Amino acid sequence: MGDLLCRTAFFAARFVRFLLRLRPEGGSSLPGYVFLKLCPRGLSHWADRVTHVVFLTGTNGKTTTTALVANALRESGIPVVTNDKGANMPSGLATAFVNAADPSGRLPRGAYAVFEVDEGSLPALVHELVPDYVVLLNLYPDQIDRYGSPRELSERLRRALAELDRSSEGHLVVFANA
Predict the structure, then answer these.
(1) Which has the closest alpha carbon to 157: 128, 122, 117, 118?
(2) Can you list the residues of the chain whose pLDDT is less than 50?
(3) 149, exposed or middle or buried, with CB in 10 Å at 0-12, 13-18, 19+?
């Protein structure tokens, strides 16, 4: 880990993680929250240290599908950074990176980052991590009230994915439910 600010943030986040493990309730996003407060561009910092970034988003099925993809990669011998606790907003992704790094802040060589991403957080995270793959599972109105109408959310997602298409070699995979 190069940048002094991010290095300091990493050690602070690891200390917070240590303290949280002393409590039975845990806290899956707090280390990442601390990391991002001290190193605001921290997700970009981590993205440069993985081989591929994969986002899985949608209203339903994110946690299960993310676990399936992460386990398939692990079974193939590929190290994986993932947010297996379902913390799918920026601080949860940052926590996953903090947890996957060794004590000096290095990620396993050749690691893939496979993240469940909250559909409302996707536009901002696309800019930070520039995923190689985005898997869009579905969009249902049952939780859309957090983001406005289904049309507004799908338009924000469309703009984010269009920008991704212009700025990288990212791929979009869409699963439509009947």
Answers:
(1) 122
(2) 178
(3) exposed
- What separation in angstroms does the CA of 1 have from each of 24, 47, 91? 30, 12, 19
Cα dist from 6 to 10, 32, 110, whole Å: 6, 12, 21
**Tens digit of each residue's pLDDT (9 = 90 or more) over 11-24:** 999 999 999 988 77
Q: What is the rounded CA–CA span in Å between residue 149 and residue 128?
A: 25
Tokens of 14: 């690891």
- DSSP bridge pairs for 172: 134
Structure tokens at 13: 């986040």
Q: Are 35 and 9 in contact (CB under 8 A)?
A: yes
Task: Kindly report whether the global pTM for this prediction surpasses the value 0.85.
Answer: yes
